[in-house]
Amino acid sequence: MDDGSDKPIAYTSRTLTSAEKNYSVLEKESLAIIFGIKKFHQYLYGHPVTIITDHKPLIGLFREDKPIPTMAASRIQRWALTLAAYEYTIVYKEGMKKIKEGTIQEKLNRFLFNYRITPQTTTGLAPSELLMKRKLKSRLDLVFPNIEKRVQERQQKQKHYHDKKSVNRQINVGQGVFARNFAIGSKIKWIPGEVIKQSGPLSFHIKLQDGRVIRRHIDHIRVRNFDCTNNENEEKCDNDSDLFEPEITIPISTP
């Protein structure tokens, strides 16, 4: 630039192949340099180049005044030979400085924060929660999120959506119903009967008009709002010989 500062003019990157993923850290760092050199060959060849790396072992391996390493792996030797064609200088730069522990005031603030978000035995709540009416988020909450609370919220949301479209199905003993007919080859789908017993939360014993007793789940039962014994409703009930085909019956045990 006009002020003497440098600005990047291009960037490049790529993913590692399945074979390159097995490279050591030294080989991966070397591969990154070789890839950049080959990618921008037309800009770098014949000009002084400065290579900046945060991997210090590369300084001793690819130093510009050092010959090609004969004891290194063949892959490293090929890369060193490739770099020898360029006029370069390799420089080491620290990638990350060590984080300082902080001042006494920072340590005190961190201690007070952890103390004030800790629940007390007398109230069962943290002092900060009593003051601000909410829980303060700490690092522990980020590492171990409250999975149980999230699951309960999702379950309540599912229950809300289900209850919006659900219908309360209630069947009482002595009530007239239609039971699903599972007899093979029959054209009659529903058989009139009367509920005589509830054998489970959703299971009922139904007595048919021919005296047989069958058991059906509530999904296979429809409430009947008329009496099949009345001659006026005979057509509605379809009370003919095809209605009572043989099927599995359940005997009623007498006390």
From TrEMBL:
Domain of life: Eukaryota
Cited SUPFAM superfamilies: DNA/RNA polymerases
Descriptive protein name: Reverse transcriptase RNase H-like domain-containing protein
Keywords recorded for this protein, A-Z: Endonuclease, Hydrolase, Nuclease, Nucleotidyltransferase, RNA-directed DNA polymerase, Transferase
Domain Reverse transcriptase RNase H-like: 2-86
Example of a GO MF term: endonuclease activity
InterPro entries to which the protein is assigned, alphabetical: DNA/RNA_pol_sf, Retrovirus_Pol_polyprotein, RT_RNaseH
Pfam families noted in UniProt: RT_RNaseH
Classification via PANTHER family: PROTEIN CBG26694, RIBONUCLEASE H
Organism from which the protein derives: Mytilus edulis (Blue mussel)
